[in-house]
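User: Hey, quick favor. My workstation is busy. Could you predict this chain's structure for me?
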Amino acid sequence: MRATMIHGTRDIRVEDRPDPEVLLPGDAVVRVTAACVCGSDLWPYRGVREVTEPKPIGHEFVGVVEAVGDEVTAVKRGDFVIAPWAVSCGTCPPCRNGVQVACEHRAAWGGSDEQGLPVDGGQGERVRVPMADGTLVAVPGVTDPDEALTKSLLTLSDVMGTGHHAAVAAHVGPGRSVVVVGDGAVGLSGVLAARRLGAERIIAMSRHEDRAELARQFGATDVVAERGAEAAEKVRELLGGVLADSVLECVGTKESMDQALRCTRPGGSLGFVGVPAGGAELPIGTLFSKNISVAGGAASTRHYLPELLEDVLSGDINPGLVFDSVMPLEEAAEAYRAMDERRAVKVMLVPGLQR
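Assistant: No problem, here it is.
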């Protein structure tokens, strides 16, 4: 099969790899119909996280189940499934508590499972899925979705669930004012999540008109281009002299966390989901003096998938609009370049797609 490998800084290659097989009774093999590049994939691509040897990459995909192990009962051959970004058993205490990202038996896409057996990356033609019962979610009534629905289903693997996690962590709800820091796919999904949860005022921070326009489509009532203290003052002006009740930090840098804290009112809540890229440590003195509640972290998108899937299938939300580019799997290197250079918000990769 063909699959994407990262060899080092800005070195992405699509190569021949062994076809995956069922190796354990709880495995499934999924034929990938669509995958994508995540903003967090850019950290090793840019060299922020060291790559010591070539490895498969990608942790978001949807597709069709081709084979299952003897112990798999939740999915069957022919099911169209969504694979959350984190593998999980579904039965250990963290999984039962809805924190599947902390699964006690977690395996890693592009890494290995608990037995040391290799696990494929999501950006390939096929993937062996360990612990399939706890990980995969079958999409009822769907066998061959069109491109638009595929895009929305694919966001449930990671970005839509992650934006939703930020909103939940920040206590977004009816009547609340919200600021979203970050205009990438996760931040835009956070805007959509805030609208879905009933926020009254949603302020998106963006300097890019195409992303700002999508934020407005998703429910942003205002867009702020300023940064730092000026941005906080603009938020205060828009909200009638106060800062935001809820702030979503969707980037993961020191600057984005500082921006988020500046925009949070005393007694407000901050939900953070940006993958830490160094330097984003929380200033305990600021939290103490302003009584800011902070929650968030890696999103257990498997936990949120059923409720978000229902809204996607009903047409209530269309998070797939974050995909502004579709490329063949063979052009994965260009997909990474496009996102790195901010020529694309998010790229969907399709195995077998012909230009």
